[in-house]
Specification:
Blueprint: H1 2-10, H2 18-25, H3 29-40, H4 44-62, H5 67-73, H6 79-90, H7 94-99, H8 103-109, H9 111-118, E1 130-135, E2 138-146, H10 152-165, E3 175-179, E4 192-198, E5 211-215, E6 218-225, H11 233-247, E7 257-263, E8 272-280
Antiparallel strand pairs: 1-6, 2-4, 2-5, 3-4, 3-7, 6-8, 7-8
Helix pairs in contact: 1-2, 4-5, 5-6
């Protein structure tokens, strides 16, 4: 399966139909289709489509080719078909993305792609990966998500819309998630997370979506995550289950939270996200 993913990445301009890719895996195409879907949770066709759209979005942001050329390279017969698929996946037209890319829905769209790769590249953490840092308190605007994680995407879109309307960019204002429940609780309705953007401006008391709050300062164990930043549960489990008992430290009465650091074109060769996971300590 690792050989298959590497082959797809290296041959995005080529013929990547099921028969071709199954030969790389040395499986019959029928067995390979079932095996791939069972391993990664998405079909070969879907994986290839996402990989080509990812490359297309990089090229759009770099402004290296025309939209028509990028559409053809992504396997679409016409620019309008490419534009429809792009808008459906990222919430922006290709031309709008080129002028002002919105990275949050971009990240969400490629969750399945990154999750597929992370299944073959299990990350292990060590004591030396964790730093203890004194962090200052941060004033934030908070949008609460309460309820089934399946609806989190809608909350994220509302958060992005509010952030844009308020003129707060993730390039200049820190973005945080506060995790108030397990990632997948036994009862889906118990899922709870806060989406936060750093700002000390007053929040309108009549604002039904946002409220003002503060991420408290103090000592925190900090773990950087640069691989699968969509699923922070393995990193969080390491901090709670392995690092904390061995460290002799004691957790403070505040949930584990993360800050997302974004890199933007043209300063980065590709869009990159680094997450710092904070475990508050006494």
């Amino acid at each position: 399966m690792q050989r298959v993913l590497d082959y797809i990445d290296q041959h995005l301009d080529g013929d990547l139909d099921l028969e071709t890719v199954s030969r790389v895996a040395a499986f019959s195409k029928f067995h390979f289709h079932r095996q791939f879907s069972a391993t990664f949770g998405l079909s070969v066709h879907r994986y290839v489509q996402l990989a080509r759209l990812k490359r297309a979005s990089h090229r759009l942001a770099k402004d290296a080719q025309s939209v028509t050329e990028i559409a053809m390279d992504a396997g679409y017969d016409a620019p309008d078909a490419f534009a429809r698929a792009f808008r459906q996946r990222f919430g922006q037209s290709p031309s709008s993305f080129r002028k002002s890319p919105d990275w949050a829905p971009w990240l969400a769209a490629f969750g399945p792609l990154d999750n597929a790769r992370s299944k073959l590249m299990q990350i292990t953490y060590e004591q030396d990966d964790v730093m203890i840092r004194d962090v200052p308190p941060t004033a934030v605007a908070i949008m609460e998500h309460r309820g089934d994680r399946a609806t989190l995407g809608d909350t994220i879109q509302r958060f992005i819309a509010w952030r844009k309307a308020a003129g707060l960019s993730p390039e200049t204002s820190p973005t945080f998630n506060i995790f108030r429940s397990e990632r997948i609780p036994a009862n889906p309705a118990d899922y709870s997370m806060d989406l936060c953007i750093g700002t000390d401006r007053p929040i309108d008391p009549d604002d039904a979506q946002m409220k003002a709050g503060t991420i408290p300062g103090g000592r925190c164990a900090v773990l950087r995550v640069v691989h699968d930043t969509h699923n922070l549960e393995p990193a969080a489990l390491y901090l709670y289950r392995d690092w904390l008992p061995a460290s002799g430290e004691e957790a403070r009465d505040f949930p584990i939270y993360c800050r997302r650091h974004f890199s933007f074109f043209p300063n980065a060769p590709a869009h990159e996200v680094v997450v710092e996971l904070f475990l508050p300590l006494k």
